[in-house]
Amino acid sequence: MGSAEFIGTLFSLEGRVAVVTGASSGIGRHMAGVLSGAGAKVVAVARRKDRLESLVDEGQIAAVPADLSSVGDYDALAADLAEPFGAPDILINAAGVNFREPADDITPESWQATLHLNLSVPFFVARALVPGMLEKGAGNIINIASLQSYRAFEKGMAYGASKGGITQLTRAMAQAWSKDGIVANAIAPGFFPTELTAPVFGDDALSRHHADATAIGRNGELTDLDGTTVFLASRGAAYVTGQVVAVDGGYLAT
Ligand SMILES: NC(=O)c1ccc[n+]([C@@H]2O[C@H](COP(=O)([O-])OP(=O)(O)OC[C@H]3O[C@@H](n4cnc5c(N)ncnc54)[C@H](OP(=O)(O)O)[C@@H]3O)[C@@H](O)[C@H]2O)c1
Fold first, then answer.
1. What pLDDT was estimated at residue 58?
2. Domains of the chain (ranges plus CATH)?
3. Catalytic residues
4. Ligand 1 centre from 196 Cα, in Å?
5. How far is the CA of 12 from the CAs of 8, 84, 86, 187, 195, in angstroms?
6. Among 18, 113, 123, 213, whose CB has the most other CB atoms within 10 angstroms?
7. 3-state secondary structure the chain
8. Whose CA is nearest to atom 33 of ligand 1?
9. CA of residue 236 to ligand 1 center, whole Å
10. Is residue 158's pLDDT more than 90?
């Protein structure tokens, strides 16, 4: 087997169907394009229909607009997600919010909104897609963790709780489903410029502070996520499960 064929066999996503939540913006939008570029058919999910539809032009990508904070019936959502290309066997849970409230300003409603979208929705969407993955005999689930899965940042109480939870949810998904061929892992990004991190990148001193905290000396660019995304979505990751891979320029290492 030649090297291109070998690499292709390991990492090609041809014939796979991926769901990416949070695909209207930032990391989810970028990852939807990466999976499509690696050969997957991609179902892009978020609330902003126009932004999803602008992605559709980029490849075999279908838009399924949905407010994931108010899903009543996850099985009905799973049926909608299977409509464009058949049962998904890759899921990236990238939809998320960070309200950056000081502890004294957090209300039960804002706490619940953060924990629900960032932690509960990834579980319920994944669980609803598991039967389809089992029928296909394999699945790759990728959750999006954070530096705040490991350490606290100012105004990060609810967000950090949700991201601490997502690392444990990832292990629990692996424990529950990996015997049946579904691997579940998480990517913990460092600081990447998106709508979510506009308050960081809009503040030169803060942005520089975070860049200086990495081993590499800069904040992330979305393309820095490409290799890990394709790897964890691919059959090359068949024996990797329950892991959190930090793509953070060494922020957590130093
Ligand atoms: N950027 C970073 O440096 C960084 C670092 C660590 C972790 N993360 C994580 O990476 C993930 C993506 O964040 P990002 O930085 O790319 O932020 P972003 O650009 O703000 O994207 C967030 C995405 O979530 C979607 N979303 C929000 N509420 C939703 C809802 N109710 N229903 C459906 N979709 C919803 C948004 O789409 P609509 O508004 O169209 O619904 C958008 O597509 C998040 O889990 C975040 O915590 C980001």
1. 75
2. 14-190+223-253 (3.40.50.720)
3. 159
4. 6
5. 5, 21, 18, 19, 30
6. 18
7. CCHHHHHHHHHCCCCCEEEEECCCCHHHHHHHHHHHHCCCEEEEEECCHHHHHHHHCCCCEEEEECCHHHCCCHHHHHHHHHCCCCCCCEEEECCCCCCCCCHHHCCHHHHHHHHHHHHHHHHHHHHHHHHHHHHHCCEEEEEECCHHHCCCCCCCHHHHHHHHHHHHHHHHHHHHHHHHCEEEEEEEECCCCCCCCHHHHCCHHHHHHHHHCCCCCCCCCHHHHHHHHHHHHCHHHCCCCCCEEEECCCHHHC
8. 46
9. 27
10. yes
pLDDT score at 59: 73
Split at pLDDT 50, 70, 90, the class of 162 is very high
Q: Which of 30, 47, 48, 223 to mutate to test the pocket of ligand 1 (most atoms within 8 A of CB)?
A: 47
- Rounded CA-CA distance 152/140 in Å is 29
pTM of the model: 0.98
Cα–Cα distance for residue pair 225/58, rounded to 1 Å: 19
pLDDT over 90, % of the chain? 95
7-11, 58-62, 231-235: which has the highest mean pLDDT?
A: 231-235
CA of 197 to the centre of ligand 1 (A): 10
Give the pLDDT mean for 5-9: 87
- Looking at every residue in the chain, the average pLDDT score rounds to 97
Residue nearest atom 45 of ligand 1, based on CA coordinates: 96
* pLDDT above 90 for 2: no
